[in-house]
Design a protein that fits this description.
- The protein has 136 residues and is of the alpha+beta class.
- The protein has one domain.
- Helices cover 32% and strands 18% of the residues.
- The strands form three sheets. Strands 1-2 form a two-stranded antiparallel sheet. The chain has a two-stranded antiparallel ribbon with strand order 3-4. Strands 5-6 form a two-stranded antiparallel ribbon.
Length: 136
């Protein structure tokens, strides 16, 4: 049975990551829609509502991730980026608004999250010009 996450835990998760999507690194102030809590390991795969299993996600990333935590990439099962165990700069870099991979985990995550849809690249380019988007 799924239990709702308390407002206190939600606020603690938001504060932990300075209100940034833990997957694409965009700030909640730069999106129109509210950010959501993602279960890094989904409930249906044995995850929980524990603080360490919750990640702040923009609606785009949360929608594309769904209940995935891995994918098949180049005939291998590759896990997705896990913000509790991975460091973003180890797996991704941004060049001219495009998020590029630096690892297999990065490649698999880019595939699932659809980071580089044209509108998102343009948004990151615009935000980078005024220093609003800096995932480093």
């Amino acid at each position: 049975m799924r239990f709702p996450v308390s407002d206190k835990i939600r606020k603690t998760v938001e504060h932990r990551v300075n209100h940034r999507c833990e997957y694409c690194q965009i700030h909640s102030n730069d999106m129109f829609l509210s950010f959501e809590l993602d279960h890094i390991i989904p409930i249906k795969h044995g995850g929980s509502n524990d603080f360490e299993n919750l990640a702040l996600a923009c609606p785009h990333c949360n929608q594309h991730k769904g209940s995935d935590f891995a994918t098949i990439f180049k005939n291998q099962i590759i896990r997705l980026f896990n913000p509790r165990v991975d460091k973003w700069p180890d797996h991704f870099e941004v060049f001219n608004g495009e998020i590029n991979s630096k690892s297999k985990v990065g490649e698999a995550s880019i595939k699932i999250f659809h980071f580089n849809e044209p509108d998102l690249i343009i948004l990151r380019q615009l935000l980078s010009k005024n220093w609003s988007y800096d995932p480093s």
